[in-house]
Amino acid sequence: MATKKMEFNINDFKYRIIEANVSSAKNLDEIEGISKMRYYFLVDQDNFIQDYKVQFDLINYTEFTTASHDEFPRKPQLTFRESFLRMIGTPNKWANGKTKNGGYSSKQYKDITNSEKIDAINDWMWKQEMYCITIKNIEYVLCGCNPGGEPQRENGKYKVFYQDNYYTFNTFVKQLNVSKEIRNAFNGVDFSDIWERFKKGELKAISFASWINSDSKLKNYFNSYVNNLSQYKTINENFKKLMKPRKLVWQKLNKEVDKKRRELAKAFDKIFEVSDDSKSFSSLKDMALNSVFNITSGFANNIQHAHIKPVWKIKKEYLKTENIEKLDEISDPANCLPLSPSVHDIYDKYYFYWNEEGTIVTINKDMNESEIDDYRQISQKYVKQSSKYLKDYIELLKEEGMDITTLHS
């Protein structure tokens, strides 16, 4: 019997984007013959890395690939490397005596510093999945050989800049990556909208150091890791034990959230199912639109149950107390508005909100305001029952640093 997959909604999480400056330089003075890149980690509220991207500033690579990697079974990273070489217009050459290409015995490295070429490479890299662009895979793509292992500091070719020095950090990142198994447990995991907002400048990244210093457990682990590389296996085992309960809580919580979402859909529709006016509408969703926003024509076919107070905020409050009743806010119809997908999307992006009187207040002045015309006023009956969540959302905006006192409706 097949196991039902959990539904996944990226708005269930509060994400941060972390910018890590990574380099192959052995010291801060080395500026030639090196690769420099920016890793962007998408982390959730528990500091698990859900996704990441890489962008190059300088590229130092070789055309030569270790010959034995073409033998059966073929090294899977080789396909990714060959795609990279084709993209930059360079043929792959075999090192260490591969006879069919002339038997190259050593690897010579080349630099790519042309900004237009690097931009083209970055556009290609941006489209790659996180499991292709791990730190070790990037090293393989550029060097054509197996990456140096840890704990040896000097063998970790690519290092992160942290507090005025470079540190090997591949295994550290690996411990925080959400596994493929967990990712595959959800339907339709797609972070493209978050990344698109980041590229447009709507979301800002925080530095790697700021991220590490924002959580005492994370900071202690990283500092132990970089200062005691010879003990990295013990440190990693200890960190796994530390993180395991958090992973279990995280998985259990998301199963409960999925359950609450299904309860919400039934409970919200039930409100209008018993209405005397429901027979004059073709669907309960049309009835909901009319009751909540007084929309009388042009009903949308794909109305969504949108939370006034975001699910990620409710989850964050739950994690502080683990009071299961807190999650009832997810299934509470009073915390729900019937919105079209496009309006739901821009609401989740903080483009606007409803004040305590149920009137829309615009935050993003560049938005197409005609899109929200039908939703400018929540009916007073519905405002009364949803007032708690409308107030909670205003408090959330203040916590996010938005100066809502200067905004107008």
Report what the structure shows.
Helices cover 40% and strands 15% of the residues. The longest helix has 42 residues, at 232-273. It has 14 helices and 13 strands. The strands form 4 sheets. Strands 1, 2, 3, 6, 7, 8 and 9 form a 7-stranded mixed sheet that branches. Residues 1-8, 97-105 and 150-154 have low confidence and may be disordered. It folds into 2 domains: 10-227, no CATH class; 248-406, no CATH class. The N and C termini lie far apart (53 Å). The chain has helices spanning 77-87, 115-126, 135-143, 170-176, 180-183, 192-199, 208-213, 216-227, 232-273, 284-293, 311-321, 328-331, 341-348, 380-399, and strands spanning 16-23, 36-43, 49-62, 64-66, 93-95, 109-112, 159-161, 166-168, 205-207, 304-307, 336-339, 352-354, 360-362. It is α+β, with helices and mostly antiparallel strands. A hairpin with a 5-residue loop joins strand 2 and strand 3 (49-62). Helix 1 (77-87) packs across helix 3. The chain is elongated.
Give the SSE map:
Blueprint: E1 16-23, E2 36-43, E3 49-62, E4 64-66, H1 77-87, E5 93-95, E6 109-112, H2 115-126, H3 135-143, E7 159-161, E8 166-168, H4 170-176, H5 180-183, H6 192-199, E9 205-207, H7 208-213, H8 216-227, H9 232-273, H10 284-293, E10 304-307, H11 311-321, H12 328-331, E11 336-339, H13 341-348, E12 352-354, E13 360-362, H14 380-399
Helix pairs in contact: 1-3
